[in-house]
Structure to design on (926 residues):
């Protein structure tokens, strides 16, 4: 194209203007096509199955396991689609109590679950797993962290979860028990933010859940054990929410998480047993 | 003639008036909601809370420093883009506006890749000087500069392009070097635009969230700016989040209104309008 | 680097190609003298001034001021505008809007001579006083009247003691009354300056009243030079003739008889062809290619064929236009060549001329100016 004044200019601008959203739509469209493509055959296989859709709000530390569980659940219940929203449990509890439409809540702490129950949005949560903390360090361990006692050494950059989110509460407990006074360089908004800081090597260590270390790329993040006597055990409760539009499927999903199949996936990911 | 025109301007035809009114409502209603739902009784306690004070002070301080740095580097950049000729000028012109449309989180990621401890440049800063940028107040400022500079550059560059370059020629015939001309003629003439750009830049820096939390992290007093405090407070204490939002809103309004009035007058005084 | 050359004042040959403009003009102005460059819009007048100021580089030629070479493309020598020391009064003044009158005038001394603010202001104050602007010294440009702004612009250009003064249509932006006033002031001022002055204008009155010399620029070329009186009485091109309000006929002179070129010559309006038109020139008429200039008011207009007389040319043709100019009426007659005549309004009533009326014109040899087409000084 030759630059000849305004006209050429407009069209130069117009091409990307039209193209960019088009590409974005195309990309998004492809993604949803894939989803329906996988869902469609199973739906036709059992013609009687009605389409079910549920939304599960789950703690950030459940990202990998619940994604797996969701796929398995969808396979076991043809025509059902499970959508996840992963974030800090405290944020999710807040969203539920603000009226966010959702069917299941899986929390990383009893406290946030209690908030939801107290607000009258659910009854009778069940603990489905436990977790404990581990020190995540970059694979080359630049600050040579071998034990929890190394965290308070000068110059060691530590990332913790925000004090308000469950992993932050757990981290405070662990550090108190170990008698460590650690001043972090940053408070992650959720546990995945802390893990990301570690895997990018921006911090020397971060306190995250064992399961997060297990799910991380071992070439980037390795774990340093925290002894059981100073560790904090957190429990993961799950519940079907009152506002659910599809209580049956919601309950089915909760049951599935609590089932032997569900427990297997959780155990493989490093979660501890519920009791 | 003039009168007829004025009257015509007052009455907008409804295909324009209705969407315009809806847009106005849409833009103002959320702000109104913030005021309606504000926890007025506990507001004094929430606002005098040290964590609020720290976040506000940090935000104001970093946004001001970021704006100052944007002016020091952005005004010359704007000048170069509108006056100088050098290879790739059009390309650079297009590139410097990218942060304007880039999601700030992406900006934060990019900054980490460059200035992070393992970043392209940050690695050497760490090795040679023991200097790490992420999770420091410097990182907050850098993140703000990254997202806010284009506002200043575009505003100033627009004014430079619109300004009559023959004033600069007149200065040259009177014996002024290019630098003197810039300082004594060009700069004073585009001062209103620099002011406008600086305020936009400051407001954008004050509200910066995505790049900050990604690149600078979140720690009270050093990197937890107001928007981060709002976001985090929303998870545990929505009332506090509303209170903090209210503070940000009023700071923005006060600054915009106060400065807007001032340029208007100064522009009229100079006859530039 | 300073390249020296002989001579005083401004000596320049300006060659520039800019878009459709092909400018190639030679100028020479002695210190204390004013050259008016007169020409129609688009002739290249402003570009010529800009080149002298260094705002446009030459493509060819050179500019030498008092022996110092300012621009010489063949040696890749170019003195930038801020080092030329030229005073430039722009057509629309370009007073800095953010500075008041006194600071506008003080700007030059401050930046060119690095004079302190106080001293620069003192100098500025003197210039303002000289131009009768003391009372407006503290006003911003937008508060000045056109005439005041023009004088401030002049003071600003003169305050840094320029070695060359350039005036671009200095009176064009003024209303008629102010123009007279400012013209008188500039006229009084110019002889007191001991520098070459180049004035660019499309207004012949400016050129005639303000300049010592006139150069007529048309389509990038100087087509005529001379004193204002020479140019106005003996125009060499239809453009100048029109400015001077004269009929201009090219012709050939031989033995005191001038044969006018009919057809495509003269005013360019085309006349019809036919028998050669001859008239007896003045006794001192030069031989060869000549131009004949004639004031319209010296043309006699008759509705009946006049009696032939010695030394009087009689032409006939239809009236093509009648135009009132104050108490005079300008009549154009499609004779060969086309002639413009001017008659008093009273006479129009007697003659009752309308478009198409056939008239007879009488042209007396006493009234024609016959001069050679070779252009002196070109």
């Amino acid at each position: 194209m030759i630059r000849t004044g305004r006209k050429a200019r407009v069209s130069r601008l117009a091409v990307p203007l039209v193209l960019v959203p088009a590409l974005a739509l195309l990309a998004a469209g492809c993604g949803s096509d894939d989803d329906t493509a996988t869902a469609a055959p199973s739906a036709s296989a059992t013609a009687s199955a009605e389409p079910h859709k549920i939304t599960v709000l789950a703690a950030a530390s459940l990202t990998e396991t619940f994604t797996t569980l969701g796929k398995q659940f969808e396979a076991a219940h043809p025509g059902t689609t499970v959508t996840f929203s992963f974030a800090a449990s405290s944020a999710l509890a807040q969203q539920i109590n603000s009226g966010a439409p959702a069917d299941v809540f899986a929390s990383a702490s009893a406290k946030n679950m209690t908030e939801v129950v107290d607000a009258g949005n659910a009854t009778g949560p069940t603990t489905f797993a436990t977790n404990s903390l581990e020190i995540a360090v970059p694979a080359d361990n630049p600050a040579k962290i071998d034990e929890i006692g190394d965290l308070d050494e000068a110059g060691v950059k530590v990332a913790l979860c925000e004090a308000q989110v469950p992993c932050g509460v757990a981290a405070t407990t662990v550090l108190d028990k170990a008698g460590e006074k650690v001043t972090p360089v940053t408070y992650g908004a959720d546990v995945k933010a802390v893990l990301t800081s570690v895997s990018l090597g921006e911090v020397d260590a971060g306190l995250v859940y064992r399961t997060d270390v297990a799910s991380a790329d071992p070439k980037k993040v390795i774990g340093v054990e925290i002894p059981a006597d100073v560790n904090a055990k957190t429990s993961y409760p799950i519940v079907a929410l009152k506002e659910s539009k599809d209580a049956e499927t919601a309950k089915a999903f909760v049951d599935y998480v609590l089932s032997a199949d569900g427990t297997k996936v959780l155990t493989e990911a490093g979660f501890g047993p519920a009791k | 003639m003039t009168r007829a025109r004025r009257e015509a301007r007052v009455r907008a035809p409804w295909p324009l008036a209705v969407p315009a009114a809806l847009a106005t409502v849409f833009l103002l209603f959320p702000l109104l909601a913030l005021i309606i739902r504000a926890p007025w009784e506990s507001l004094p306690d929430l606002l005098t809370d040290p964590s609020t004070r720290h976040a506000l002070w940090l935000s104001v301080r970093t946004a001001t420093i970021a704006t100052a740095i944007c002016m020091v580097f952005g005004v010359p950049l704007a000048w170069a883009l509108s006056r100088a000729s050098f290879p790739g000028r059009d390309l650079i012109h297009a590139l410097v506006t990218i942060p304007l449309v880039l999601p700030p989180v992406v900006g934060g990621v990019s900054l980490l890749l460059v200035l992070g401890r393992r970043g392209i440049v940050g690695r050497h800063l760490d090795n040679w000087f023991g200097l790490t940028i992420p999770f420091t107040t410097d990182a907050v400022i850098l993140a703000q500069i990254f997202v806010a500079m284009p506002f200043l550059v575009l505003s100033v560059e627009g004014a430079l392009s619109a300004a009559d370059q023959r004033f600069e020629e007149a200065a040259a015939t009177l014996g002024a070097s290019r630098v003197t001309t810039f300082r004594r003629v060009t700069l004073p003439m585009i001062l209103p635009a620099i002011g406008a750009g600086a305020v936009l830049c400051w407001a954008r820096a004050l509200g910066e969230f995505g790049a900050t939390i990604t690149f600078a992290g979140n720690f009270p007093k050093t990197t937890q700016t107001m928007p981060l405090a709002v976001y985090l407070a929303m998870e545990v204490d929505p009332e506090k989040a509303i209170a903090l939002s209210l503070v940000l809103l009023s700071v923005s309004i006060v600054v915009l209104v106060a400065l807007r009035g001032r340029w208007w007058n100064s522009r009229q005084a100079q006859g530039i309008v | 680097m300073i390249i020296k050359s002989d001579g005083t004042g401004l000596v320049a040959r300006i060659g520039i190609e800019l878009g459709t403009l092909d400018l190639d003009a030679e100028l020479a102005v002695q210190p204390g003298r004013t050259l008016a460059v007169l020409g129609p819009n688009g002739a290249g007048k402003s570009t010529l001034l800009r080149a002298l100021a260094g705002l446009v580089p030459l493509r060819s030629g050179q500019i030498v001021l008092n022996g110092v070479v300012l621009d010489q493309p063949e040696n890749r020598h170019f003195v930038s505008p801020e080092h030329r020391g030229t005073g430039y009064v722009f057509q629309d003044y370009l007073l800095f809007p953010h500075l008041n009158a006194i600071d506008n005038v003080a700007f030059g001394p401050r930046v060119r001579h690095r004079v302190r603010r106080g001293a620069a202001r003192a100098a500025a104050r003197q210039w303002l006083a000289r131009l009768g602007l003391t009372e407006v010294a503290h006003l911003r440009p937008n508060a000045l009247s056109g005439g005041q702004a023009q004088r401030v612009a002049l003071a600003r250009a003169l305050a840094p003691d320029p070695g060359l003064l350039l005036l671009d249509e200095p009176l064009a932006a003024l209303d008629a009354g102010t123009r007279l006033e400012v013209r008188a002031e500039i006229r009084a001022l110019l002889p007191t300056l001991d520098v070459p002055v180049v004035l660019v204008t499309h207004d012949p009155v400016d050129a005639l009243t303000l300049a010592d010399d006139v150069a007529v620029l048309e389509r990038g070329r100087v087509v005529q030079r001379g004193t204002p009186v020479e140019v106005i009485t003996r125009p060499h091109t239809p453009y100048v003739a029109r400015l001077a309000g004269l009929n201009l006929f090219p012709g050939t002179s031989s033995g005191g008889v001038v044969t006018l070129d009919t057809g495509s010559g003269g005013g360019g309006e085309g006349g019809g062809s036919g028998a050669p038109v001859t008239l007896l020139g003045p006794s001192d008429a030069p031989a060869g290619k000549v131009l004949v200039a004639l004031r319209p008011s010296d043309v006699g207009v008759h509705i009946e064929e006049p009696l032939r007389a010695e030394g009087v040319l009689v032409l006939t043709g239809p009236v093509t236009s009648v135009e009132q100019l104050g108490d005079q009426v300008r009549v154009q007659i499609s004779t060969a060549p086309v002639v413009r005549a001017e008659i008093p309004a009273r006479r129009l009533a007697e003659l009752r001329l309308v478009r198409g009326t056939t008239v007879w014109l009488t042209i007396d040899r006493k009234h024609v100016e016959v001069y050679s087409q070779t252009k002196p000084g070109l």
Notes: The first strand of chain C starts at residue 10 and ends at 18. The CA atoms of residues 271 and 300 of chain C lie 19 Å apart.
